[in-house]
Amino acid sequence: TASRDIACRVRGFGAYTPVDVLTNFDLEKFVETTDEWITTRTGIRQRHRLAEGQNASDAAAEAARLALADSGMEPGEITHVINATCTPDYLCPNTACLVEAKLGIMGAMAFDFNAACSGYVYGLSMARAIVAAQPEARVLLTATEALTRRLNWADRTTCVLFGDGAGASVITADGEGALLEDVLCASDGNLGGLLTIGGGTHTPYAKGDPVGDDFFVQMNGRDVFKHAVRNMAAISQDVLARNGLTTDDVALLIPHQANLRIIEAVGDRLGVPAERVFVNLHEFGNTSAASVPLAIADARAKGVLRPGMRVLLATFGGGFTWGAALLHF
Ligand code: ACO
After folding, report:
1. Do 154 and 26 fall within a single domain?
2. What does each of the 329 residues of the chain score in pLDDT, given as a tens digit?
3. What are the two backbone dihedrals, phi and then psi, of residue 91, each rounded to the nearest 5 degrees?
4. Cys staple from 239: which of 49, 172, 184, 312, with CB 3.0 to 4.6 Å?
5. pLDDT tens digit string along 202-230?
């Protein structure tokens, strides 16, 4: 059965980006790159960076406060906090518990999951499953990243691409809000080595060991590019087809904001004209799991995303993971 049979409303949206901005010109000062190279290859002009002492959980809590206010709900009403991140504050405790504490939520089920850049769309899928099993559930979905903490600032092939930020939504079975018409998620674990961030227990660091290059984001950009375009387009077509829809029925495509060229190629494959594709990566860079909810909140704030619109979300990330969702505002 298509998931549109399950009532699931995304009732509130919020986003947060740190105040500190690093422009391409700032990067030119310490890594061998140019604004011209970065903008023509990626579209990115600047990215935001968490302040010292400010962490992924702080950004998530800020976004969550806004999402709660937008939904008209109080922290005390939340029954589940589910948080997408590949850059958690700690291996333990999980970031969702830290967010819970910061918001004064008590007793909710709270856990993290990692689907890299696909985190928010994966989270919509899990939130839908939660409210399907438990219709009174009130799920807070956060997606937050502290990627600048895991960039090798001497590696120009990766450090120019990423930024920090967070997005959040409140999901329930009932009430006012965007209808989650469908969501589809997929992965291919065989390709995980093409995009990695170490620092887990795979590498048994001993006290005093220097960290290796594997501690930071490492990526085969060309291969990622190819798989991202193919899989984002294919899963978008799948989610539309199984709902009897075409891209003509989509008012706005909100893709993962990794690279303008990837976004343009996905738009081309799907036959969605550029004016119906939302892009804000020039302001934020690639914020991984946070990118889609940041883009949704931004598109609403800018008046590009309006009530009545059907939006197609499409994501791709490390793992590899990918996904697509249909939200009717
Ligand atoms: N500044 C200047 N020169 C650079 C930089 C830089 N920041 N980075 C690489 N170069 C150089 C390379 O060294 C190379 O030089 P050479 O020809 O002398 O060897 C040249 O530029 C071309 O490098 P390529 O890697 O071939 O450049 P490409 O056109 O493939 O662009 C990029 C690289 C932007 C990373 C591209 O492959 C890409 O966008 N891939 C997708 C990856 C992505 O967006 N990942 C995001 C994370 S994954 C996700 O979100 C799903």
Report:
1. yes
2. 445 567 899 999 999 999 999 999 999 999 999 999 999 999 999 999 999 999 999 999 999 999 999 999 999 999 999 999 999 999 999 999 999 999 999 999 999 999 999 999 999 999 999 999 999 999 999 999 999 999 999 999 999 999 999 999 999 998 889 999 999 999 999 999 999 999 999 988 899 999 999 999 999 999 999 999 999 999 999 999 999 999 999 999 999 999 999 999 999 999 999 999 999 999 999 999 999 999 999 999 999 999 999 999 999 999 999 999 999 99
3. -70, -35
4. 184
5. 988 899 999 999 999 999 999 999 999 99
Q: Are residues 7 and 141 in the same domain?
A: yes
Please give the distance, rounded to the nearest whole angstrom, from the Cα atom of residue 221 to the centre of ligand 1: 6
Same domain, 127 and 17: yes
Residue that finishes a domain, picked among 145, 177, 209: 177
Atom of ligand 1 nearest to the CA of 320: 51
Nearest CA to ligand 1 atom 2: 33
- d(CA 96, CA 166) in angstroms, rounded, equals 13
Task: Looking at the structure, tell me whether residues 125 and 240 fall in a common domain.
Answer: no
My answer on whether 142 and 197 are in the same domain is no
SS3 175: coil
Number of folded domains that form the chain: 2
Closest atom of ligand 1 to 156 CA is 7
The reply to whether ligand 1 has any atom less than 6 angstroms from the CB of 226 is: no
Give 17's contacts (C-beta < 8 A, 6+ positions apart).
48, 59, 163, 164, 165, 166, 284, 287, 294
Please tell me the distance between residue 232's alpha carbon and the centre of ligand 1 in angstroms.
20
**Burial zone of 51 (CB within 10 Å; 0-12 exposed, 13-18 middle, 19+ buried):** exposed
Query: What is the Cα–Cα distance from 30 to 14, expressed in whole angstroms?
Result: 33
Looking at the structure, tell me whether residues 159 and 189 fall in a common domain: no
* Token pair listed for 212: 């290796």
User: What is the extent of the structural domain holding 120?
Assistant: 3-177
CATH number assigned to the domain comprising residue 245 = 3.40.47.10
